[in-house]
User: Which sequence fits this backbone?
C-alpha cells in the first residue's frame, strides 16, 4: 500500500474500487505510510499486501480459507493466509493443515514446502481478515480498518457468487458466518489448526475431501490440493 495506485486485479476492482475511496481506507493507507516513515517494520511488504486478490481473480473463486492476520516473523508473510514462501519453514498451524490434508485425502506432502500459491491459482482465496501486522506483534494492526475492508470482501463474494466453500477454522473466523449466505454456499467449520486447539476437532474434520465432494456435486472442477 505504497504511494502508487492500488494494484488490484480488474475483476476485484469492479467490486471494491469505491471501498478504496472511503475515509477509513484513506486513513489506513496514511497510517501504513507513517509507519514506513518512522522505520516501523510490518509485514507483508507493500507489493504483497493484496497477493491473495491478484493470484485468485474474483470470478475464479471456488473456496475461501479465512485466516486472522499475517505471520509476524521475518520473511514469513506473503499475502496468503496460512502460506509461507518457498524458502521459509512452515509454521506449526500450517504443519497441522498438512497433516490433516494427508490424513483426509491420502496425499503425500512435502512438509518443507509451505507455499500455497498452487491452491490460490486454482481458485482457493486465502484471505486474512487483517492484511498487515507489525514485526513480532501479532494482531497489532487489528483495529486499523482492515476488518471493515475484508468484511466487505466476504460480503461481496457471498452476494455475487454461488456455490463457494467457506472454510472457517477457529472462533474468530467463525464470527464471520453472518456475512455469508448459507443458502447459496457451503460453510465448513472446525477448531483452529494451531497446536493449542487442533486436537479439539480440527484433526479428522476432513475439510479437503468435503470441499471437493461439494464442488464435484455442483459440476465444478475439484481442487488438486
Assistant:
Amino acid at each position: 500500500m505504497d504511494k502508487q495506485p492500488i494494484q488490484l486485479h480488474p475483476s476485484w476492482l469492479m467490486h471494491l474500487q469505491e471501498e478504496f475511496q472511503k475515509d477509513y481506507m484513506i486513513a489506513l493507507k496514511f497510517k501504513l505510510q507513517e509507519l514506513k516513515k518512522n522505520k516501523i517494520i510490518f509485514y507483508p511488504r507493500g507489493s504483497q499486501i493484496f497477493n491473495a486478490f491478484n493470484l485468485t481473480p474474483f470470478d475464479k473463486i471456488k473456496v475461501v480459507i479465512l485466516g486472522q492476520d499475517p505471520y509476524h516473523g521475518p520473511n514469513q508473510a506473503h499475502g496468503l493466509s496460512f502460506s509461507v514462501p518457498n524458502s521459509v519453514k512452515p509454521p506449526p498451524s500450517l504443519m497441522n493443515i498438512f497433516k490433516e490434508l494427508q490424513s483426509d485425502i491420502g496425499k503425500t506432502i512435502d512438509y518443507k514446502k509451505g507455499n500455497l500459491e498452487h491452491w490460490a491459482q486454482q481458485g482457493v482465496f486465502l484471505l486474512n481478515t487483517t492484511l498487515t501486522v507489525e514485526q513480532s506483534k501479532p494482531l497489532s494492526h487489528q483495529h486499523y480498518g482492515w476488518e471493515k475492508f475484508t468484511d466487505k470482501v466476504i460480503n461481496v463474494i457471498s452476494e455475487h457468487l454461488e456455490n463457494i466453500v467457506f472454510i472457517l477454522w477457529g472462533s474468530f473466523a467463525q464470527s464471520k458466518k453472518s456475512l455469508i449466505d448459507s443458502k447459496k454456499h457451503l460453510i465448513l467449520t472446525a477448531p483452529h489448526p494451531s497446536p493449542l486447539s487442533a486436537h479439539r476437532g480440527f484433526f479428522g474434520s476432513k475439510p479437503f475431501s468435503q470441499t471437493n465432494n461439494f464442488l464435484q456435486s455442483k459440476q465444478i472442477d475439484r481442487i488438486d490440493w
Summary: The longest helix spans residues 23-37. The two ends are 30 Å apart (CA to CA). The longest strand covers residues 63-67.
